[in-house]
Design a protein that fits this description.
It is a single chain. By secondary structure, this protein is of the alpha/beta class. The protein has three domains: 82 residues, no CATH class; 311 residues, L-arginine/glycine Amidinotransferase, Chain A, CATH 3.75.10.10; 81 residues, Pentein (Orthogonal Bundle). The protein has 17 helices and 18 strands. A hairpin with a 4-residue loop joins β12 and β13.
Length: 492
């Protein structure tokens, strides 16, 4: 098979390993070429470098030496970027290298008192202040050597790199927004297609759509007769800045989730498209679960301990059936996955105990912040592979949390630091403000909300580096620094 046919036949399955071998062969061809210079065609490579197969096709078909050199440079750059950008997370505490955020946008402006409960907020934040708080959060991360990327940017880059998927994305997004009338589907789609800038389009899909934005509408629908201009035709996604929940980074893969709430289930569409089509991730990030699964699971319940051990909370937002389904997929359908044991924690089903990470986060090799309410006897299930039956083994462990943790982590003991430092009133208040929802960016170095004074003082006194974030507006969505961050790369 000649090299051009090989490229075309492998277009959809190019990997870094394959592409690297391909480059070696291309460089040999270039070295032996005596063609005239014709750089014009290779201007296309600058924009096409995101599509390795296309770039290689252009390179092979060209008769240009100088252009080919330029093309090879672009492809090499693409490969380096791609190899550095894969997901790699095997702990909650190792040095954080790259993180995914979402800067709050106009979706917060479409919150109203009547929709707060439906959209999972306790109050309406001040958008300008929320953005300032979030920018400070991002800057704390950057100041400590963390590369910050934004969900809205990655999704915009995805659509720009693969314009042929735009229509598919819009149709899917409109349908999942609850618009099931063909007339309105067409009206909304025509409106969104007017956005020529990919990022503006993405931000609009996040913000929601009112009747007023669509202009004068003439249909034979009763809703048009009663709707006010400010009436929401498509709900916003105000919870998007909690990037931890729509998916979870585990090893070199992503657990793309089925969310608990209809309000939030649309959020996972962005991760799905990014990992399938973005040039930095396409073909390199296995989906360890699947957003179309029936049972719901959320990223706030998933804690990486090491490459072989995973903690998952059975909570208000994560069903036990989802954990078992995830275990089966990890054990039998993902060869690169190294997880051997999943510990499923049975925690109270309530808003205050929303996710495992709202009551329990790791802050050092042997240390955890914790809500006092789960410090006693706890029910935990160890899930392992039963290869003989092509099934899972489930063993119940009942006892004190610190004893169970030490046993499965292979430690003589662990340290637990209760929210509120033992003060029942402070614990109740600061737990509501996510005092246990810490983001560890290196062992013993954590980001917390400044307002949790008692807990923060307690952690400082015990030798932890505590980086405080003023976030009076961000916290009304009921999530802390861990909730607002999705690690993409941590050191081993």
């Amino acid at each position: 098979m000649n090299i051009e046919n090989e490229i075309i036949n492998n277009k959809e399955n190019l990997t870094i390993k394959y592409a690297s071998k391909l480059l070696e062969r291309l460089e040999i061809l270039l070295k032996n070429s005596k063609a005239e210079s014709d750089i014009d065609k290779f201007v296309l490579l600058k924009t096409a470098a995101c599509d390795l197969a296309f770039a290689c096709e252009l390179l092979i078909k060209s008769k240009s030496i100088s252009g080919a050199r330029y093309g090879l440079m672009e492809i090499n750059f693409y490969l380096r970027r791609k190899s550095m950008s894969n997901i790699h997370v095997t702990s909650e505490i190792k040095k954080l290298k790259k993180v995914l955020l979402h800067r709050p946008g106009d979706e917060l402006l479409n919150l109203t008192p009547d929709t707060l409960g439906e959209l999972l907020f306790d109050d309406i934040p001040d958008l300008a202040e929320a953005q300032l708080e979030h920018d400070r959060f991002a800057n704390i991360l950057r100041d400590h050597g963390v590369e910050v990327v934004y969900l809205e940017d990655l999704m915009a880059e995805t659509l720009k790199a693969r314009p042929e998927i735009k229509e598919q994305f819009l149709d899917q997004w409109i349908t999942e927004s609850g618009v099931h009338t063909e007339v309105y589907h067409k009206i909304i789609k025509n409106y969104l297609e007017k956005f020529k800038d990919e990022k503006e389009l993405v931000l609009k899909t996040m913000a929601g759509i009112t009747f007023a934005e669509l202009g004068e509408i003439h249909t034979n629908f009763l809703v048009d007769r009663i709707a006010t201009a400010s009436h929401l035709l498509v709900n916003p996604m105000p919870n998007l800045y909690f990037t931890r929940d729509p998916f979870a980074s585990v090893g070199n893969g992503a657990v793309i989730n089925r969310m608990f709430s209809v309000t939030r289930n649309r959020e996972t569409i962005y991760a799905d498209y990014i990992f399938k089509y973005h040039p930095d991730y396409a073909g390199n990030v296995p989906d360890l679960y699947g957003r179309n699964n029936y049972f719901h699971i959320e990223g706030g319940d998933v804690l990486n301990v090491n490459e072989k051990l995973l903690f998952i909370g059975m909570s208000q937002r994560t069903q036990p059936e989802a954990i078992q389904e995830l275990a089966m997929k990890m054990f039998y359908e993902n060869e690169g996955n190294k997880i051997e044991t999943i510990l499923a924690f049975n925690i109270p089903v309530s808003r205050a105990f929303m996710h495992l990470d709202t009551v329990f986060t790791q802050i050092d090799t042997d240390a955890f912040t914790i809500h006092p309410g789960i410090m006693g006897t706890l029910q935990v299930f160890a899930i392992t592979k039963d290869a003989a039956k092509h099934d899972v083994k489930i063993e119940e462990h009942t006892g004190k949390l610190e004893e169970i943790l030490a046993k499965f982590m292979g430690l003589p003991k662990v340290r637990l630091f209760p929210c509120g430092a033992g003060d029942a009133l402070a614990a109740e208040r600061e737990q509501w403000n996510d005092g246990s929802n810490t983001l560890t960016i290196a062992p013993g170095k954590i980001i917390v909300y400044k307002r949790n004074y008692v807990t923060n003082k307690y952690l400082k006194e015990n030798g932890f580096t505590v980086l405080e974030l003023e976030a009076s507006n961000l916290c009304v969505g009921r999530g802390g620094p861990r909730c607002m961050s999705m690690p993409l790369v941590r050191e081993d």
